[in-house]
Specification:
CATH superfamily of the largest domain: RNA polymerase II/Efflux pump adaptor protein, barrel-sandwich hybrid domain
Shape: elongated
Strand content: 35-45%
Strand order of the largest sheet: 2-15-19-18-17-16
Order of helices and strands: HHHHEEEEEEHHEEEEHEEEEEEEEEEE
Number of helices: 7
Number of domains: 4
CATH architecture of the largest domain: Beta Barrel
């Protein structure tokens, strides 16, 4: 098939179209069009040359269009920029103020017997006429039972073969040994019963005097002087329902334990016997009052790796301050250093704040 134009003429026409398209504002769109016209008009064995130009021009146009769309879509409008600049966090704030604060020291302890005794036998023998049980009340000097020695027990077994006239002599030769209660109190434990053979010095019954008890607790040595000055401590029963008691300090133990504590004892009168040894208690006492201390709400504190921080609000912006704390309560905290009186501190969203953040404070 013959074509009216040669290859050289094709190129000449292509260059002419391309030059004319370049002189217009829409050159990016007319150049591909010129290529289409030339390529349609001149089809021969060199058609691939024009195809390469055409593909290159289309790619350039496509990239320009996509870039324009992306830039247009991502560019914020002036109104959106203004709204973004106006967004600020609303937080509650409070002033650092001065006031009196005191701490409360708490230790745990339990009730213990002040006076107790064990009834034992000084002789070997068989226990007889013994009937005490746990919980029985006994009086000092009350007969609890008798001990029959092995020799007397043997004589009694042979008493049937002895005349009535000689039996009084038998009692004088080997007598029974009476057992008397050493203290007034309540039977706490029974180790032996009637008929049991008792060795010399072996415990038979444990008796405790409940009329006066000790309240004992383990006190760290750093609070020793504070407890001495308090003189009376508050005692709260953890399981037993009873109003809180205020008891005088009886004594402190003379030695300190390995964990640097000592035992404190309080005297508890118990005439009605309603308290029992082993009852758990919490012992509390106040520390000296810190007058005119610098205070702020507890929720203003931010803890990070064992250190405390607060955010102050100045000119609508946050400032992070490291602070040293003193007495800490659930509601207020004593501040030893880091902030000053009347400074505004954030008491809401404290863990969400950062330094130099624009906020709106509401007291």
């Amino acid at each position: 098939m013959n074509y009216p134009f040669s290859v050289s003429k094709k190129i000449t026409y292509f260059q002419s179209f391309d030059k004319k398209a370049s002189n217009t504002r829409l050159s990016k769109f007319l150049k591909p069009r010129s290529l289409l016209l030339v390529n349609d008009c001149f089809r021969n064995e060199s058609n691939e040359v024009f195809g390469v130009f055409l593909q290159r021009r289309f790619r350039e146009v496509l990239l320009v269009i996509i870039a324009g769309i992306v830039l247009f879509a991502c560019q914020p409008t002036p109104k959106a920029q203004q709204e973004k600049a106006e967004i600020k966090i609303h937080i509650k704030t409070a002033k650092v103020f001065r006031g009196d604060i005191t701490d409360t020291i708490s230790i745990f302890g339990e009730l213990a017997l002040r006076q107790e005794a064990w009834l034992s036998s000084q002789f070997e023998g068989r226990l007889s006429d013994f009937s005490l049980l746990r919980g029985d009340k006994v009086e000092k000097g009350q007969l609890a039972g008798i001990i029959i020695s092995a020799r007397r027990e043997a004589l009694l077994q042979a008493a049937d073969n002895i005349s009535e006239e000689l039996k009084p002599l038998l009692d004088e030769q080997e007598k029974s040994i009476p057992l008397y209660c050493p203290v007034t109190g309540i039977v706490l434990d029974v180790m032996m019963h009637t008929g049991d053979v008792v060795a010399k010095g072996e415990h038979i019954v444990h008796i405790g005097d409940l009329r006066t008890l000790d309240v004992q607790g383990e006190l760290p040595v750093q609070y020793l002087e504070t407890a001495r000055k308090a003189k009376t401590l508050n005692v709260h029963f953890t399981s037993y329902i009873h109003p809180e008691l205020s008891l005088p300090i009886e004594t402190f133990t003379a030695t300190v334990t390995e964990n640097q504590s000592l035992i404190i004892r309080l005297k508890l009168n118990n005439p009605s016997l309603k308290f029992r040894p082993g009852m758990r208690v919490k012992i509390t006492f106040p520390t000296p009052v810190h007058n005119e201390a610098l205070l702020l709400p507890r929720q203003a504190l931010v803890e990070e790796e064992g250190q405390y921080f607060v955010f102050t609000i100045e000119n609508g912006k946050t400032t992070k301050h490291s602070v040293e704390t003193g007495i800490m309560h659930d509601d207020y905290v004593e501040i030893l250093s880091g902030v000053e009186e009347n400074q505004q501190v954030a008491i809401e969203k404290a863990y969400s704040l950062k330094d130099n953040l624009e906020v709106i404070s509401n007291e």
